[in-house]
Amino acid sequence: MASADTKRLTAVDRKKKNKIEKNENLAGLLFVSPMLLGVSVIVLFPIVATFILAFADWKFVVSIDQLKWVGFANFSALLQDEKFIMSIINNALFIFTVPVTMIFSLILAVIIDKNVYLKSYFKVAFFMPYISSVVAIAVVWQVLFHPSAGPINQVLMSFGIDNPPTWISDPEFALLSVAIIHIWISIGFNLIVYIAGLQSIPKELYEAAEMDGANAWYKFRNITFPLISPTSFFLLITGVIATFKVFDLIAVLTQGGPLNRTTMLVWHLYEMAFLNLEIGYASAIAVVLFLFVFTITILQWFGQKKWVNY
Amino acid sequence: MKLNFRKLASTVILLFCSIAFLLPFIWMLSTSFKIEADVFKYPIEWIPSRWNALENYKQVWFGDQPFYLYYWNSIKVAVLTTILSVVVSSLAAYGFSKVRFPAGRWLFLIVLATYMVPPQASLVPQFILYRQIGLFDSHFGLILLGSFSVLGTFMLRQFFMGIHHDFIDAAKIDGAGHWRIFWRIALPIVKPAVATYAILRFIWTWNDYQNPLIFLRTDALYTIQLAMQKFTTINGEFYSLIMAAAVSAILPLLIVFILGQKHVIDGIALGGVKG
């Protein structure tokens, strides 16, 4: 009798449980469906289409039935494309902005974290370029870099440098000029993340080192630097990925010139797709861009455990 | 006492560094007040000797490319994108963290995976799609492009995960459904995180240049960034005017940032440390 009762009870319970599970499923799907739908239409479907279009020859101006499948022709054309090669080289060179930004930011972070008054003023001041419109900033720097009359060259000339570089119009200095502005913009972000990282280092470690008579450099070298390495690794990866996405600065300042010295993958892609209307070719560039960023992200996943001291 | 003196000295030194760092902004502001002939005067006049501020700003705001129109466009796009994005992301974040359904984990991985796609890699098909379904050259299309943020979903999910499951279960026993729990309990708890994300999304949308450049064509729909670029092309050598335009493009954001600086800085710091 008793056992039949429990059996009936569990049957009712199971039914109830099933109903709850069913409700949970429905609720879950309802909550996530707007995001899922949006991401599918705006990101997933287009990225799949990019991979397909990369094997086609098609121009925007003609109708879709004139689309021709060309296999790997777009990719082999890329290897002959001087501008594409220059873009890869410039992208590679531009990666150097990342460690430079990180060094400046770490020095500033160490000073601001421990050794100054007005902490929040400094955070806001160094963060300002990061939240400002890149277009406006680019325009301001363009005037600052003005070859003959710009303030930067006037200062240089007053210090006795007779032939200062013409910066963004000088093939030798154009990429450097863009890099300087990019570093100036990125310092704020790196700084804030570093300060947060520094605050998570236990104070006892420094106190112990002080008791042993360690100087500031020793403490930085043996405590701060190793313990901040997860933050550094994060900044390195996000920084490198960000260099692959630089577009506004190039579009406003140099349009890839002079002599292709500042062209980059994203700019080349934009030119091919929206100025030359070469859909297939631009998609092939997009695939290369995707593969670069994808590889770096994979490196991050595996590298995090291997190279970082926690 | 000795320590305080050292702290004071480094504050003063860093103060000079920060001013040097901000010189481009100071130069921009001061130039926007000048008459054109004084723009490149050397030594630089940090405080203009001849003022022309009113004229310059009047020209920018009510001249041939009236900034008030582009301001309105930018405000509309940025505000609506922020609202939509916060709604979509917080719903998804709740679903992925507080509703226990088997498909959730897989769906979350799919959403997260799209974060690896650089936005430019999907630009061309997006453009074709927008032309096909009639979203090209419209504010609505632009707003949709910025409204499905993986970053926002991920960030808010982290915060929802901080709410204990027992809390949710207790509410369920009292007869509340997920919608009520979300609206009445979970969302109010993560309000600070929502504010942080909303401010960041507003800043990013306001500053976005690439999407308006590609997805808008009609001049009357231009956002402030496109207008800024166009203004520069048209007014080529009138640097005082261009600087007045630049100040106008940056200022509203600066105000948003300074009002919400704690939210912004904490949000960036948190995102950074958590990876």
Automatic annotation (TrEMBL), chain A:
Span of domain ABC transmembrane type-1: 87-300
Pfam families: BPD_transp_1
Any one GO cellular component localisation term in the record: plasma membrane
Top-level taxonomic group: Bacteria
Record keywords: Cell membrane, Membrane, Sugar transport, Transmembrane, Transmembrane helix, Transport
Subcellular location: Cell membrane
Statement: the UniProt record of this protein carries the keyword Ligase: no
Cross-referenced InterPro entries: ABC_transporter_permease, MetI-like, MetI-like_sf
Sequence intervals crossing the membrane: 26-56, 88-112, 124-144, 173-196, 233-259, 279-302
PROSITE patterns documented for this protein: ABC_TM1
Membrane topology qualifier: Multi-pass membrane protein
GO-annotated biological processes: transmembrane transport
Family: Belongs to the binding-protein-dependent transport system permease family.
The protein's name in its UniProt record: Multiple sugar transport system permease protein
From TrEMBL, chain B:
Principal subcellular localization: membrane
Key words of the record: Cell membrane, Membrane, Sugar transport, Transmembrane, Transmembrane helix, Transport
UniProt KW Cell membrane keyword: yes
Entry-linked CDD domains: TM_PBP2 (cd06261)
A cellular-component GO term for this protein: plasma membrane
Membrane-protein topology: Multi-pass membrane protein
PROSITE patterns: ABC_TM1
Signal peptide: none
Bilayer-crossing regions: 12-30, 70-94, 106-128, 140-160, 181-204, 238-259
Subcellular location as annotated: Cell membrane
Keyword Zinc: no
Pfam family, any one: BPD_transp_1
InterPro entries associated with the record: MetI-like (IPR000515), MetI-like_sf (IPR035906)
Sequence ranges assigned to domain ABC transmembrane type-1 in this UniProt record: 71-260
One BP term from GO: transmembrane transport
Annotated family: Belongs to the binding-protein-dependent transport system permease family.
PANTHER family in the cross-refs: ABC TRANSPORTER PERMEASE PROTEIN MG189-RELATED, ABC TRANSPORTER PERMEASE PROTEIN MG189-RELATED-RELATED
Protein name as annotated: Multiple sugar transport system permease protein
Species this protein is from: Gracilibacillus ureilyticus
